[in-house]
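[retry 2/3] Phospholipase A(1) DAD1, chloroplastic-like: previous attempt timed out, resubmitting with same input.
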Amino acid sequence: MEFQGIKNWEGLLDPLDDDLRKEILRYGEFVEAAYRCFDFDMSSPTYATCLYPKSSMLTDSGLDKTGYKVIKNLYATCVVQMPRWTKKTFPNLASPRSSWIGYVAVCDDEKEITRLGRRDVVIAYRGTATSSEWLENFRATLTCLPDDMTTFDENYDQPMVQSGLLNLYTTNTQCDQSLQDTIREEISKIVDKYSDEPLSITITGHSLGAALATLTACDITTKFSNAPIVSVVSFGGPRVGNKSFRCLLEKNGTNILRIVNSDDPITKVPGFVIDDDIDDVAESHVASTGMPSWLQKFMEDTQWVYAEVGKELRLSSKGDIATCHDLKTYLDLVNNYENDTSLA
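[retry 2/3] Phospholipase A(1) DAD1, chloroplastic-like: success.
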């Protein structure tokens, strides 16, 4: 359970524990499978859907003998769409409003359950793939979480998250159920079905999928008072929300391990982070950034101030900017990590 963050990964990251390394790589393979299952061919009639049936999805994507069984496909729906005129001028930019973005898998192998000490549930998300998802990524101002995704606390301001991310998670149509509703239905079934045994929920993703993983974890821990341990293992994720959002995650006991490549610009957006360690900006005349408190307050009010969440494992691709955001790069960095304390 320490690999799931029950002790906030204390003593496991510096130096990186070899068994934890294997677990990080194992969850990274579930994300790789999400990419391999996605139909990237824009000329295909099945573009933006899953290439394989649930029954053989992991095997068909090259992930053999995991001990997990896929039980649900996941779709995300975009609010924004490419302008109509682009469909004729740039037909390759067209994309469906709702796209396959990942899956839910449950460990059903007795040997793997024994090894883990529990039955594990994996929710795996791919990164940005369609033009509509890119447009949602650009909607980067912070917006308030809906009431059913947060708990009131008079000691904190309203939790806020990136608006495009929240759109992808909560949007539904007459034909498409929202990703949020699908997640809630499946978790409810899983928690009821396995209520008499140890259970964990591990949410993993890369890039956009990393951000969705964090938002999904927040939703599950807020919605389900009887939820088992919920952990996030994310790769190359952008920022998700403000300081109150981070406080909500911590209050709910959500465990988040962010794998970050210091050369990856995606991990440094959207927005900016200021005065992250000072609780009350108004009481501080000058922050660690050297910025006057009144200016910090003004910038926070513009809804562009984000906060980092969880525990970070920081790596470096040593200047390979061209591939620094690729999931493969992240997994190679973890696999070859040499416990350099200057990078940890």
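[retry 2/3] Phospholipase A(1) DAD1, chloroplastic-like: The two ends are 22 Å apart (CA to CA).
[retry 2/3] clearing retry counter.
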